[in-house]
Amino acid sequence: MGMRYTTFGRTGLRVPELVLGAMTFGEQGGVGAPLEECRRILDAYAEAGGNMIDTAINYRGGASEEILGQIIGERDRFVLATKYTVTRDAADPNGGGNHRRNLRLSLETSLRRLRTDHVDVYWVHIWDRHTPIEETMRALDDAVSAGKVLYVGISDAPAWVVSRANTLAEWRGWTPFAGLQVPYSLVNRDAERELLPMAEAYGMAVTAWSPLGGGILTGKYDKSEMSGKFRLAPDALSDRDRAIAQAVRNVADEIGATSAQVALAWTRRRKGVLPILGARSEAQIRDNLGCLQINLTDEQAETLEAATGFQKGFPADFISQTTPWVLGAAAVDMYP
Description:
Elements lengths: L4 E3 L6 E3 L2 E3 L13 H13 L4 E3 L8 H9 L7 E6 L15 H15 L4 E6 L8 H13 L3 E7 L3 H14 L4 E7 L11 H8 L2 E5 L29 H17 L3 H9 L5 E5 L4 H8 L8 H9 L9 H12 L2 H5 L2
Parallel strand pairs: 3-4, 3-10, 4-5, 5-6, 6-7, 7-8, 8-9, 9-10
Antiparallel strand pairs: 1-2
Helix pairs in contact: 1-9, 4-5, 7-8, 7-10
Keywords: Oxidoreductase
Pfam families: Aldo_ket_red (PF00248)
Protein name: Aldo/keto reductase
């Protein structure tokens, strides 16, 4: 099975079912990939049919964008996405945030590093509660009008903020958010409460970061003897984390796949969700791409989900429980 494509929300932009995350591109600030390894990672992803790359102004202190600017040969072949919000200068009160000034200066910085005159998708990285969402949406719309940004999205924000932003965009004729970026994996299903239903209602594409739960779902923490550097100390894993990782390993052994492939296959089962692959080596990206060959059965997915003990909580569970009481006989037909 090859790479399939979908549209980026309610736009005509074609994006793949797996996104390449460039947070690992560069060796600054911890374990990452050197330039030549980044080139091999990108080549392997492109060979599989991938065409969307996700980075941010602050990844690896800017090295991620700079490396991408060097190794992307055919710029128009890729859907290039970057983000702003995180400060460019911690000593500057206006160095970060979602206000117009930081947007403008961040965008110019990213374009220069990426060696391009536009980005295909520009993400608001994190909700800035001190900047009115009206200012952010209008500033983004101006960037679109200037041709420096083609589409916009938002990451790491409450559902009500995103909903208000897109409602304002609809009423005022501004460019709406076409994409939402959230953490989503078997160890973190919080987005199912409000964010994923909201994205589906607005027709937004969802890119999922940390689909391997910070490495918990790769199986590498199951080894009794571990070498190398890991994002988490083995004793930092909870009993719940270990139970989920074991459930993933059991399914992987059953179907002859790796744990990472099973975890990614679960995430991509969700309608409209595109996992972001963050690899530090060519071997890792090729292993992750193997999830394209895996289609979990409903029974396997239910087994994995049972291990998470996840509950949506209030109000979702309460609304579901009271549906027969509220709608009576109609509930049978309307909400099977």
